[in-house]
Amino acid sequence: MKILIINPNTSLEMTQTIDNTAKKYAFPGTEITTLNPPDGPDYISGAYDSAIQTPKVIDILQRNKDSFDSFILACGHDPGLDACRMVVKKIIGIGEAAIMTACSITRQFSILSTTPESAAAVPDRLRSLGIDSSRFASARAVGTSDEIVKKRHEMFDVYCQVGRQCIEEDGAGALIFSCAGMSDIKERLEQHLKVPVIAGVISALKIAEQFSEVPRS
Question: pLDDT by residue for the chain (217 residues), tens digit each?
Fold first, then answer.
């Protein structure tokens, strides 16, 4: 099957990280293509960036909707996901996929966000998905800007510290990365913290692969 992953920001480094992660975890026979819009912000920091990039994501979908079996929107904010579903039915947002995965494996989960602003938006997002607040332990910011994603390897200790706070102080049984660009430190963080760390790119990929026998629409 063929899956198109769309990174809605313009960071080529992040697009490559997403592509590498998806190809690492994909089943044999799954073909992965990862694209991003040609212009716009390096990161999707909130509603404004989401609004700017959604038409560009839809344009990519329109041009590729007949060439792929399933689609993945690779941003934890799931920008414009409802609008994208008006173009293709089989599109999975990594934010929604990660949250649903967490709910299936633990009583309470926390989200590692890039910034305090991103963390503050999480409760509203969970309400929109119908997630009971009792399932949500916390959302903690790993940094103060989206640059924390670029520095994820050199600042890995910060990720460990914040993750441990989620576990020991907030009661989280699993952690979710809010950003697709964090996905390549998933296994390393799991080894350090000894709890499941959920990368939405992988969760969405596994859902998308289930559509392999479903006719395109």
Answer: 999 999 999 999 999 999 999 999 999 999 999 999 999 999 998 889 999 999 999 999 999 999 999 999 999 999 999 999 999 999 999 999 999 999 999 999 999 999 999 999 999 999 999 999 999 999 999 998 878 898 999 999 999 999 999 999 999 999 999 999 999 999 999 999 999 999 999 999 999 998 765 555 4
Same domain for 157 and 185, yes or no, is yes
- Cβ count within 10 A of residue 212: 14
What DSSP assignment string belongs to the chain? -EEEEE-SS--HHHHHHHHHHHHHHSPTT-EEEEE--SSS-SS--SHHHHHHHHHHHHHHHHHHTTT-SEEEE--TT-TTHHHHTTT-S-EEEHHHHHHHHHHHH-S-EEEEESSHHHHHTHHHHHHHTT--GGGEEEEEES-SSTHHHHTTTTTHHHHHHHHHHHHHTT--SEEEESSGGGGGGHHHHHHHH-S-EE-HHHHHHHHHHGGGGSPP-
As a whole number of Å, the CA-based R_g of the chain is: 16
The number of distinct structural domains making up the chain is 2
Same-domain check for residues 146 and 207: no
- pTM of structure: 0.94
